[in-house]
Design brief:
There is one protein chain. The chain has 27 helices and 5 strands. By secondary structure, it is mainly alpha-helical. The protein has 2 domains: 392 residues, no CATH class; 212 residues, 3-Layer(aba) Sandwich (Rossmann fold). It has a 5-stranded parallel β-sheet, sandwiched between helices. β4, α25 and β5 form a beta-alpha-beta unit. The longest helix is centred in the C-terminal third of the chain and has 45 residues. The protein is elongated and about 120 Å long.
Length: 643
């Protein structure tokens, strides 16, 4: 768009710079997902760039229609949105569901619920209601990225209905203020939830708490509307104003890149701080792009970015499910957060191809002709030449196969992942053992004579207290089988930070047994102070076994090194090498490559039992030395008395 374009309507149909901004937004998100975490740790703010663009564009279109006709044709508006969004969405869901059926395993978990949520534009609220919890990170949903589409689609449904109420406000400034006030309220809502320690998923996925980008775009459309009329102020065309707009646009893009380079955590500084900052920077960039005469919009609408921008919707749809499927099929030992670079590159190529094909053969025909006319055109090709007929039949056959695969996938979709099933089985075994034989308190005394007995006959389960996370919980059946009478206190999502409190409680209740097993290394880095506090409570009269960790997480090597270093110079501390024991048997782990099934649980139990026995021998040697020293001292005392 340039200032020389004639104004045939009060508002221009196309805005310079929006395709480039769409391209930038989708590149940020795709790079964040495909090449984590180093390249763009804050790349998820690209979603908020999309939100601002959507709010601005939809409101501008509504303003144009109202100015031209005096009314808003809701049916036609929603029909255009449906033509634009639904065909590509349906193709992605059908194709990826069929491929998921071929891949099998955890990618099918809750697929039926996911498809229903996508079809009803409620994916974000379904995710909130179901809880994004612990297992969601290890076994990601196939269509999890649809949460943001749900937010936008809810906006498309509600905003045209609310829009006339804004027009009742007599002044443009009042409309702008109302939009920005609602945006501020949305951002404050997110900040209150996050700041009070509430559910981050609720804050991030909620339409009410994540609508500020859309509302900033709404306010921006009201603010800029006078620029696109014949009555716009003359100063808008001044070289100074144009240069200021261009400089602001460049600075805004630089600031946006800086935000994406920050390692954003789960604090108010990020939610909504970074998201709100990215939204405001996007608004500034849009202003610079659409400013009459500005070269900024044309600069970021260069052909490669415009190509990406035109296909940004398809790119966003395809990239995440293709990543989940690729990891499950070709790198089962990894997660989407630890996928190798070659997986990311392959998914990037597949995403580009799939989105290009979708744009050309699905999105564009339906948007131009409508669904019915597109279907009639496809049928008409059956009456063409042999090649056209053959291609049409091939498309029909491929479509039938995809639909059949989708149906099979929905029918086969399990309600829980293999990791959840493994943990549930361990929990059930533990509950049954507690019902049948509640563990009796055991005296914490463990003198030298006990150490000799433990080393001679092996440490029995009734002399062991075990504290752990979901890996130990999944292994509970194996522990109870290998070490009958063992007391297991294990739960999902525990880290070493929780260890001291649990061990202190056991000691205070007189239930801390002579050998204490702690397996809390899976869910985060080790805090040495926590280890020191656990060891202090265990004391010198008991033995402490630290179980190292195995998981496709970047902190695991550091955890295992810290545990080994802590145990190295302590006579009453040993390490159970679960990582080494299971590394050659990863087929016995669940799909998340973390939680053991029944056979893997027995390996976990064997590893723990061996470490406890080794520690018992080590302590027996120390006890025997202690007894010998006492005997020597006694003889010396007797010799002194004889003299």
């Amino acid at each position: 768009m340039t200032s020389t374009v004639p104004f045939k309507s009060p508002l221009l149909a196309r805005f310079a710079g929006l395709d480039g901004m769409r391209a930038i937004a989708v590149v940020l998100v795709v790079v964040y997902h495909l090449f984590p975490p180093a390249m763009l740790p804050g790349g998820f703010v690209g979603v908020d760039v999309f939100f601002v663009i959507s709010g601005f564009l939809i409101t501008s279109l509504l303003l144009r229609e109202h100015t031209a006709t005096g009314r808003i044709a809701l049916g036609r508006f929603w029909q255009r949105r449906a033509r634009r969004l639904l065909p590509a969405l349906a193709v992605v869901v059908a194709v990826c569901s069929a491929v998921a059926w071929v891949v099998g395993g955890d990618v099918l978990v809750d697929l039926d619920a996911q498809v229903l949520a996508a079809a009803t534009f409620s994916y974000n609220w379904v995710s909130i209601a179901g809880g994004g919890g612990y297992f969601a990170a290890a076994t990601p949903e196939l269509f999890r990225n649809f949460w943001s589409l749900a937010v936008e689609e809810q906006f498309y449904l509600l905003w045209p209905v609310v829009f006339p109420l804004f027009l009742l406000l007599p002044r443009t400034w009042a409309r702008i203020a109302a939009a920005f006030a609602l945006a501020a309220a949305s951002a404050v809502g997110m900040g209150v939830i996050v700041g009070s320690g509430g559910d981050l998923t609720r804050a991030y996925f909620g339409t009410d708490t994540h609508a500020f980008g859309l509302l900033i775009g709404v306010g921006l459309a009201f603010l800029l509307a006078p620029l696109f009329t014949e009555a716009r102020p003359r100063w808008v065309h001044s070289p100074t104003a144009r240069r200021l707009a261009e400089a602001a646009g460049i600075a805004a893009l630089a600031g946006l890149v800086a935000v994406t380079a920050l390692p954003l955590g789960g604090s108010v500084a990020a939610f909504p701080g970074a998201l709100l900052t990215a939204s405001l920077l996007s608004a500034v960039a849009i202003v610079a792009g659409v400013w009459p005469g500005s070269r900024f919009g044309r600069a970021i609408d260069v052909r490669p970015l415009r190509w990406i921008g035109d296909r940004s919707y398809g790119i966003y749809l395809w990239h995440w499910p293709l990543l989940v499927l690729a990891v499950a099929a070709f790198a089962p030992g990894a997660t989407v957060a630890t996928a190798p670079v070659w997986i990311g590159m392959g998914v990037l190529a597949a995403t580009a191809a799939a989105s290009a094909l979708s744009f050309r053969f699905v999105e564009t025909p339906v948007r131009r002709l409508g669904l019915r006319a597109s279907a009639r055109a496809l049928v008409a090709r059956l009456h063409g030449g042999p090649r056209a007929r053959l291609r049409t039949l091939g498309v029909a056959l491929a479509g039938a196969l995809v639909l059949a695969g989708t149906g099979a996938a929905l029918a086969a979709a399990p309600e829980e992942s293999s990791a959840e099933a493994a943990v549930a089985a361990g929990r059930a075994a533990l509950e049954e053992a507690r019902r049948n034989a509640p563990p009796a308190p055991v005296s914490p005394d463990a003198g030298p004579e006990h150490e000799v007995a433990d080393a001679a006959t092996g440490v029995t389960g009734d002399r062991i207290s075990a504290v752990g996370d979901s890996v130990m919980l999944a292994s509970a059946g194996g522990l109870l089988e290998e070490l009958p009478g063992i007391e297991v206190d294990a739960a999902v999502s525990r880290s070493m930070w929780a260890g001291p409190g649990i061990v202190d409680d056991l000691a205070a209740a007189g239930r801390l047994r002579p050998y204490v097993v702690v397996a809390l290394g899976t869910n985060g880095a080790i805090d040495r102070d926590s280890l020191e506090r656990i060891a202090a409570t265990v004391g010198p009269k008991r033995g402490l076994v630290l179980v190292n960790a195995y998981a496709p997480r970047d902190w695991i090597p550091g955890v295992n090194a810290d545990l080994a270093a802590f145990a190295e110079h302590r006579t009453n501390v040993a390490v159970a090498d679960w990582s080494g024991a299971i590394a050659a048997h990863t087929d016995l782990l669940a799909g998340d490559q973390i939680h053991p099934g029944s056979a893997g649980g027995r390996i976990f139990a064997d590893t723990v039992a061996a470490a406890v026995d080794t520690l018992a021998h080590k302590r027996r040697a120390a006890a025997e030395l202690f007894v010998q020293l006492q005997q020597v001292q006694l003889k010396q005392v007797q010799l002194g008395a004889d003299r």
